[in-house]
Amino acid sequence: MSQPYVVHLNPVAFHLGPVQVHWYGLMYLLGFLCAIVLGEYRRRRGRLPVTRDALSDLFFYGMMGVIIGGRIWYMLFYYAGGLHWIWTTPLALFKVWDGGMSFHGGLLGVLVAALWWSHKQKLHFFDTMDFVAPLVPIGLGLGRLGNFINGELWGKPGTVPWAMIFPEARGEDLQYVAAHPAWSSLMQRYGGLPRHPSELYELALEGVAMFAVLWLVSMKPRPRYLISGLFALMYGVFRFAVEFVRVPDPQLGYLYGTHWVTMGQMQSLPLIAVGLVLLWMSRRAPVLPLAKVGG
């Protein structure tokens, strides 16, 4: 194979005086901005009978749900120190630079926020979620791009033509070569093991593919539950599949044996099941009529 690309990008986009602005944070911000713009576009076409101010409230609550839910979920299921932080260092919850956030927790946070907002607006919860679902994949894809820029969440060693070198994975590379001597020649040749760029796989699937499908399907009014079901099913399947070539979180590893089932796969299975149930429910569900556009 030819010389692999070395993922050695500067995670800092620019400085504001002593403050470092990271690409990862900008990806989150850009994802929220895209959701706001596309959401207003859909609202003005009558896809949800609410005012602009009410929709702004939904986006604010949803943003808080992503941050709070994503962080709490990470601390409960992925934090390297286990659950001891709850009674020993509870402030670790606010150190978002230490470990980050979890998608599944962020999704739950959005669901709780949308449920409360829908009740307040006297709307069916799944009419709200069908409206929101096509707006989410852009943020998911940008988040994975941020992971790639950070050189984190890399994949397993591979010899595919697009395999890349992740300098931050050198410690894992050495351990892998010790257990699999056949890879030592590649290690010596490139100074690191070529790995699957699993972040880019997720960018393509969870970001580009999901957005294209959900946006195209939602261009016309559809039965309740359909868009939400497609979102849950597609994300669950895509995430489950990519986990086969993505290295699991080192503090967790594989849940069964040395190569079987990751936490990401376990948490994606309920999404697949929910997606299938929602698609079945959509077969006899009503279609939300287009609303008259207000202020």
UniProtKB/TrEMBL annotation:
A 1,2-diacyl-sn-glycero-3-phospho-(1'-sn-glycerol) binds at R144. Keywords: Cell membrane, Lipoprotein, Membrane, Transferase, Transmembrane, Transmembrane helix. InterPro entries: Lgt. The lineage of its organism: Bacteria, Pseudomonadati, Pseudomonadota, Gammaproteobacteria, Lysobacterales. It is found in: Cell membrane. It comes from the Bacteria. Catalyzes the transfer of the diacylglyceryl group from phosphatidylglycerol to the sulfhydryl group of the N-terminal cysteine of a prolipoprotein, the first step in the formation of mature lipoproteins. Its EC number is 2.5.1.145. The gene is lgt. The chain crosses the membrane at residues 20-38, 58-81, 101-119, 131-149, 200-218, 225-242, 262-282. The keyword rRNA processing does not apply. It is an enzyme of class 2 (transferase). Pfam families: LGT. Belongs to the Lgt family. GO terms for molecular function: phosphatidylglycerol-prolipoprotein diacylglyceryl transferase activity. Pathway: Protein modification; lipoprotein biosynthesis (diacylglyceryl transfer). This is Phosphatidylglycerol--prolipoprotein diacylglyceryl transferase.
